[in-house]
Design brief:
Layout: E1 8-11, E2 16-24, E3 29-33, E4 39-40, E5 46-50, E6 53-54, E7 60-64, E8 67-68, E9 74-78, E10 81-82, E11 88-92, E12 109-115, E13 124-129, E14 134-136, E15 140-142, E16 150-152, H1 154-163
Parallel strand pairs: 4-6, 5-7, 6-8, 7-9, 8-10, 9-11, 11-12
Antiparallel strand pairs: 1-2, 2-3, 12-13, 13-14, 15-16
Length: 167
């Protein structure tokens, strides 16, 4: 069955209706939208949202005002921004990767979880860099719901370190 701009397709796994907004036969891509004001600029992007943009090559953005600028990047949620190559960003209003690298290059982080309140109040709950180093805004709970449950916060970790014998 041929597809044409203006046709609607249904994603059978979620029963969502999408409108085909552009067909690029050179790049063999179809751009579709299920709401308003979304944009796909380069080739092979996908977006599902309100006012979101997939700009990088094979980028994917979904949610409200999500933006995937990096090549092969993914932005998901509310106001999230994946600035660099192969980044995965989700949550709400993340702090944008501070790397000065172009969108075609890796940034500081492979994954960012945003916990910001607005576009002018951005923050991250968690980041994971390319070397596997993870940074958390809060603590870590181990054994949740068990008699051995313990939560480590930066303060409790400092207290534990202070108890160690000096060498």
């Amino acid at each position: 069955m041929p597809f044409y701009v203006g046709h609607f397709v249904i994603l059978t796994t979620t029963n969502q209706l999408f409108k085909i907004t552009a067909i690029n036969t050179t790049n063999k891509t179809i751009t579709f939208d299920n709401t308003l004001s979304s944009t796909a600029i380069n080739n092979q992007q996908m977006y599902f949202s309100l006012a979101s943009q997939a700009v990088g090559v094979q980028a994917h953005a979904e949610g409200a005002s999500a933006a995937a600028f990096g090549d092969y990047s993914h932005a998901q949620g509310m106001g999230t921004i994946a600035k660099n190559k192969s980044q995965y960003v989700f949550g709400e209003y993340n702090e944008v990767d501070s790397s000065n690298n172009a969108s075609t290059k890796k940034g500081n982080y492979i994954e960012i979880v945003g916990k910001g309140a607005s576009a002018t109040s951005r923050s991250n709950a968690r980041t994971l860099d390319w070397d596997g180093n993870e940074s958390l805004a809060g603590g870590i709970t181990l054994g949740k719901g068990t008699a051995n449950e313990v939560t480590l916060t930066p303060e409790t970790l400092k207290q534990l370190i202070a108890l160690l014998p000096s060498t």
